[in-house]
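Cross-posting from the modeling subforum.

Setting up a comparison between two proteins and wanted a second pair of eyes on the formatting. Protein 1 (sequence, then structure tokens):
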Amino acid sequence: MKILSAAQTRILDEGTIKAQGITSLELMERAATALLNWLLDALHPAADTPFHILCGPGNNGGDGLALARLLHQSGYQPQVWLLPTEKSSADYAANLQRLPTAVPRHELHARRLPTFPAGAVMLDALFGTGLSRPLTGLAAQVVAHLNESQALCIAVDMPSGLLADAPQPADSAVVQAHYTLSFELPKLAFFLPQNAEFVGEWELLSIGLEATVIHKLAVDNCFIEENFLVGRYPKRPKFSHKGTFGHALLLAGSRGKIGAAVLASQACLRGGTGLLTTCIPQVGYDILQATAPEAMCLPDPALGHLSELPDLQPYAAVGIGPGLGQEEASREVLRQLLEAAKVPLVIDADALNLLGANQELLDLLPPDTLLTPHPKEFERLTGEPARDDYHRLEQLRQFARQRRCFCVLKGAYTALATPDGQIYFNSTGNPGMATGGSGDVLTGLLLALRADKRLSACNAALIGLYAHGRAGDLAVQQTGEAGLVAGDIVRFIGPALQELADSLTHIVE
């Protein structure tokens, strides 16, 4: 699913109007109808539910006015609050004229701001994607007042004051919505941690925007959903054997961190690798043999850390990092791997920290290497703290381009940057996955997928991110968020991947 800029959103609206032979007012009516249906289906409001709709002078306010009319026609008694203006959009003016006289309308004033009761539903239709600068004056006062209310706040398209695809100035006035109802496609702002308190839970409402126009718009940000992955994860051939799906090598573990090696090994096995060899320090030999018996265990000569790189000839992909530690000998193992590897690499955890501490090693990264840092590890890789979430995204994009690698920035809506400058945001996962070992599980799963020669580097990364989050979503149904541990994610990798394998069959049928 494409993530459009504010400018592209306007192009899409105009293209839809032209392609479908409708007016902008008719498109606005679609939006208002979609909003009404969501309110009725999601909230099941009683007939006396107080609806308060705050409308700005542009098309966002026009959506709000049209919604007020439809609520009134549906038997509710909404009230409309208008931001005073000398100039409004044509569609706003048309919907204001259409508003029944029975719907109370009030003009907002700085000295007489309305009080909204706790049981009220407040619709924020002040400003949408067209906003290009921070709110000031009365608009900023109104937003600050709304944020003090105990009413349920629902933003129409965008929380007023939030910029769709640009950094938010510090201390600017932005509505803190409980829900944001956007149309057809998400906005980049929805995926950034700094905006979470404003956006709340967001949902997309379809209003029939023209698919051919969407297809033609070039973007460098996308949202990964199951439909996006249909056909990318192939079913297993009837006559396949263990060699069909590759032999993976995992370099992991050190004294006190053998659990990371175990979790990554288990995830790699559940991720479908044909064979797995885990190279581990001697201190972890018995532990790994007992906890991942399907893996072949290759003990390092050293007791507590990895000190030698094994022969790479048998392997289809190599993963390094979970629990590795940062011993000088382990750094040398990483260096030798980067210099010698002719197969795909997955680099995580302590291996990333070694890269960050020894920047010259970054120049040795083979093309299409897959790195999986969390934000702090990524900062060590770049050597530059991010000014804000937008800056971090651009750092991520440039890093992947410069290093010709695939880089995963872990977190809510985990982002994958590709060597051609694309960024994909993942749709699956939940807060319960913010637990030790979750990243080790992701590394093992990605290693399994990179060892499968049927998958491109990009498809392996996309599938791995989605399936990892989906496994967490399946697990949390049994454990709850607080009770979720990394081992629970491992148990549901198989079902998550099977859903993707079955998705093409379902569509064909």
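Protein 2 (same layout):
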Amino acid sequence: MPGDVIPLREATRAWFQISLQTFGGPAGQIAVMQHKLVDERRWIGQRRFLHALNYCMLLPGPEAQQLAIYTGWLLNGIRGGLIAGGLFVLPGMLALLALSGIYVGYGETDFVTALFAGVAPAVIAIVVQAVQRVGKRALHHPALVGLAVASFAALTFFAVPFPAVVFGAGLLGWLLSLRIPALRESRAHDTADGTEPLISDEALHHELPTVRRSGTVLLIGLVTWFTPVVAFAALAGSTGTPVFVDQGLFFSGAAVVTFGGAYAVLSYVAQQAVGVYHWLAPGEMIRGLALAETTPGPLIMVVQFVAFVGAYRNPGSLDPWLAAVLASLLVTWVTFVPCFLFVLLGAPYVERLRSNRGLTAALTGITAAVVGVIANLAVFFALHNLFDRTRTADAGPVHLDVPVLASWDPVAFAITAVALGVMFGRGWSPLRTLGLCAAIGVGLFVIGAL
């Protein structure tokens, strides 16, 4: 088993540089790593890079961060994986912690309200674009289109729990593949060779998938994952702050069902955080997503905002600011530690997993369902930001939130139309679109139109 194939200090410097450029969601983050590691430094070949990415696509959680962990492991072993994955998250975590504090402290001021009046409609357009992009890649067969529509209907009309939709889609994907062999073939990524690497595949770090190694990694990973949850449970008992336990357990569970990227799981998080735990008001989820879009790192970092605001409003006997910071750190921990566990545990088995066509078929089904899940998120955001009031319509098994049409917000509709126009008509990036819409919101406030 080789040691460091790149000096650890040099690799750490490279990962720090990458961590400051990881804007634009997973596609942009993966593109940054591709440019730095494959094209510029030539530490890893194109095929090996895509092979690692294909494995990370099988896992719950943010695939870009998991790709950083996996690639760090290839270059410098477990130390490299820990450094790469940790640095990938750190800048965004610090930035969003500061932005969450600003939101809680100044979110009710007229200026900040105007700012969010601009960015919230932009997020609707960003999620709609995500539906289009994921759908274009994932729905390459009529059966998969049907699965996406069924997933959307299950969430939107019948309030089926998100985990049930994910696992049901995986099972249906596998069953459909028995009759449709095309569903057992991975179509996720291009297979171009790219630039010849300076380091051969044989020189990269590798380990044999032994039972002893797997057991050790699993034990350490589970203890590392849940020890803070237990510690916070004890703190909650002494301070009367049950939000720590609720958030620790909820987001630990969410970490293992986040197939399909951040937009998919945000539908589940929004449903629970707003409708069940009441940590946020309906419109606040989209504000948190807007903040997360402006920071580097995985978009799923928005859960930190949810935890911060929820704990600030339910601090028990603790100071609200202390409770908010502690909760945001806890939720960040339980969201991202599993990524290290999944990658470091499964990396030695990657070749075996990638040759498993049944697993590929299940992933194909889940990816198709993700299109419906993201569409459900777009509907949720539109309902609660384009209209001031909604109502619930129940008819037997159907439970549907519908808008009160008289409460429509013409400014929100207009800004959403602008955001859709620049993203789909002119190809603008999400970050640039957010900037434009924020400026529109502030401009309307200055002229007295808000």
